[in-house]
Write a structure and sequence with these properties.
By secondary structure, the chain is of the alpha/beta class. The chain has 3 domains: 40 residues, no CATH class; 150 residues, Nucleotidyltransferase, domain 5 (2-Layer Sandwich), CATH 3.30.420; 64 residues, no CATH class. It is 51% helix and 15% strand. It has a 5-stranded mixed β-sheet with strand order 3-2-1-4-5, with helices on both faces. The longest helix has 21 residues. The termini are far apart.
């Protein structure tokens, strides 16, 4: 019964509705506080999962942040959930950490990365993310000698953000055609500048040194290490759960739900097929 209560909670059913549902089956006396206590029983497992030792070198890191409403000091504010995943030296993916933070400042990411190193993270050669300045600064400081890769998908979104609707389709085609060729991408920047899209042209200039770092690694890896698409399943599940609940009562509540979702996904990753081969 406790497991069923907890599962209902993690699926996004409110504590009040869980109480009502179970009363229909003759299980009376289950209060909202009982539901919360049942869910909290998994906090220990979540904390152990998020703080476990990292025992295998991880050459590729993928980082991202999602924002959720969390009750803090009697009011609801947006907080960032910093998520880090990696592809291990043996080719398997693994979810490494989830941290609730006030935002995405470089100090937040720096603290997150230092915690990973304290748990045993080593062998990092490239970190893939969106273009947030805080991530870039933290990577440069904590992972000396590693390269930072601008996610190609986030890059295209950033360029297209300042393009008018009437030109967006044509520009998207140009970007897609040039995304693997530095010379072509510079030509696109010139064209956009001539069209009056100076911000988009400047975006290309800002990231032109970090769009193709993935090419220094084995060609069979390229498609899977040039974007953060591998984080999509995690983000999709987190957003699905949050659409139902709307907000979280505190930081631990958010971490509890996120941790349980990630434990399930991580089990699929490390027991499924190898994601990449390092044998070439």
């Amino acid at each position: 019964m406790v497991l069923a209560v907890a599962e209902s909670y993690f699926e996004g059913v409110s504590t009040r509705k869980v109480e009502k549902i179970f009363s229909l089956f003759g299980l009376h006396g289950i209060s909202a506080s009982d539901v919360s206590r049942a869910a909290k029983k998994l906090d220990k497992q979540v904390n152990e999962f998020l703080n476990r030792p990292i025992e295998v070198p991880i050459p590729y890191l993928f980082v991202d942040a999602s924002y959720f409403k969390v009750r803090t000091d009697g009011r609801y504010v947006n907080k960032a959930l910093l998520v880090v995943t990696g592809i291990r030296e043996d080719g398997y993916r693994e979810i490494l950490s989830a941290t609730v933070a006030e935002g995405e400042g470089d100090y937040c990411w720096e603290s997150c990365f230092e915690d990973l190193k304290a748990r045993g993270l080593k062998g990092v050669k490239m970190v893939v993310s969106d273009g947030h300045n805080g991530i870039q600064a933290a990577v440069q400081k904590v992972f000396v000698g590693a390269s930072w890769q601008m996610c190609n998908v986030h890059f295209m979104r950033a360029v297209l953000k300042n393009i008018s609707k009437k030109d967006k389709k044509d520009v998207a085609y140009m970007l897609k055609d040039a995304i693997e060729d530095e010379r072509k991408m510079q030509e696109v920047a010139v064209i956009l500048d001539d069209m009056g899209y100076k911000k988009s042209a400047n975006t290309i200039d800002s990231f032109r040194f970090d769009l193709w770092n993935y090419k220094s690694f084995p060609r069979p890896h390229w498609r899977k290490i040039r974007t953060t698409n591998g984080l999509e399943r995690i983000n999709k599940e987190l957003k699905r759960r949050s659409r139902v609940s709307g907000a979280y009562s505190n930081d631990q509540s958010l971490l509890r739900v996120a941790g349980c979702i990630m434990m399930d996904i991580n089990e699929d990753w490390i027991t499924g097929n190898r994601y990449l081969s390092f044998e070439e």
